[in-house]
Recover the amino acids of this structure.
């Protein structure tokens, strides 16, 4: 019998307004416990303003084998916004 | 009684009271640390290691206050005292047991700490009320953690219910030690340092009993005149230096590295 709890993926936000970034996963019996355990694993040393958890099995992902999903057969480089500088911060 | 000796008693009773709090935290923190590498699930291993560090950190806060009052060095208090000089209650000395016992003990302790710290918020000793305010913030998470485990394990499966009930049967009479009346109790109450242990025990029972009953765990208590009363014999003794042999083993372990090289600089 599998005695491990389910896994939850953990998303961490350093400060309000920043994107939540995937930082890893935790085993937990339910979402509330997952948040608590994620706090111990990922929010204890890193500055944290918010955590998200989501059941790993609820994530729908692409298959690495299925390369055709991302295939690009003709040159589309003209579509890349290469000629522009995109600064991290916009000044006004 | 002349004024000088009265002041001495009052000072001594405050010092002992702070030392009781420091010792409880240090010894339970050490017990929690014994799960490092052994907890039933990796995440709980880390959670208990984290809580162990927090409890030992809290003991340092109390030892530092004790140092302000007496000059005693916190490291010396932890590493140079004989095991029978510790003033912790027996409750925190007992071996970590199975995970159910650890969860129940931690829950009982966390609620007791919350009740004690809240009562200290209006202590006439300013250093006491400030310390209580600081520690309460971190304690809230400990409570959330142990309460969450208690509520999930209490009646989850036949096996978890059996283990949790055995843990409660064992831990409940022991936990009375957290509210063991101290010799100088009347001094402390008169000086407004502290509210009496009996009143705190009542508050504690009002939280603990409904919480355990909500997950079908039975406690040896009866309700009289609207108040819960334990019907078991309390496991007292720690505050007057009557400890179990478990404390000797624990303190040997705690002081082992220090004794190998007492003068080492870390």
């Amino acid at each position: 019998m599998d005695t491990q709890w389910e896994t939850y993926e953990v998303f961490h936000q350093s400060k309000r307004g920043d994107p939540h970034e995937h930082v890893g996963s935790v085993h937990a019996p339910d979402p509330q416990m997952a948040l608590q355990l994620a706090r111990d694993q990922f929010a204890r040393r890193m500055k944290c303003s918010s955590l998200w958890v989501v059941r790993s099995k609820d994530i729908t992902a692409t298959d690495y084998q299925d390369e055709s999903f991302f295939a690009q057969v003709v040159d589309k480089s003209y579509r890349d916004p290469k000629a522009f500088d995109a600064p991290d911060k916009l000044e006004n | 009684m002349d004024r000088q000796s009265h002041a001495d008693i009052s000072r001594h009773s405050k010092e002992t009271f702070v030392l009781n709090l420091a010792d409880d935290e240090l010894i339970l923190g050490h017990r929690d640390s014994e799960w490092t590498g052994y907890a039933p699930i990796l995440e709980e291993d880390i959670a208990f290691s984290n809580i162990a560090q927090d409890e030992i950190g809290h003991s340092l806060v109390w030892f530092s206050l004790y140092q302000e009052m007496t000059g005693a060095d916190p490291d010396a208090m932890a590493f140079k005292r004989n095991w029978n000089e510790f003033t912790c209650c027996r409750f925190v000395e007992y071996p970590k047991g199975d995970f159910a016992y650890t969860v129940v003990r931690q829950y009982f302790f966390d609620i007791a700490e919350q009740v004690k710290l809240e009562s200290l918020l209006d202590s006439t000793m300013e250093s006491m009320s400030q310390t209580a305010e600081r520690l309460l913030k971190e304690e809230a998470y400990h409570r959330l953690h142990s309460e969450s485990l208690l509520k999930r394990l209490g009646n989850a499966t036949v096996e978890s219910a059996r283990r949790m009930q055995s843990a409660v049967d064992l831990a409940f009479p022991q936990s009375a030690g957290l509210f063991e009346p101290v010799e100088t109790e009347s001094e402390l109450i008169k000086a407004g340092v502290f509210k009496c242990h009996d009143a705190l025990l009542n508050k504690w029972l009002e939280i603990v009993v409904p919480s355990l009953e909500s997950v079908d765990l039975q406690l040896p208590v009866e309700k009289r005149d609207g108040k819960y009363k334990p019907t078991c014999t309390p496991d007292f003794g720690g505050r007057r230096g009557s400890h179990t042999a478990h404390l000797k083993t624990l303190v040997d372990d705690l002081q082992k590295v220090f004794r190998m090289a007492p003068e080492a600089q870390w």
Notes: Residues 32 and 53 of chain A are 9 Å apart (CA to CA). Helices of chain A lie at 31-42. The beta strands of chain A are 6-13, 21-28, 50-55. The mean pLDDT of chain A is 88.
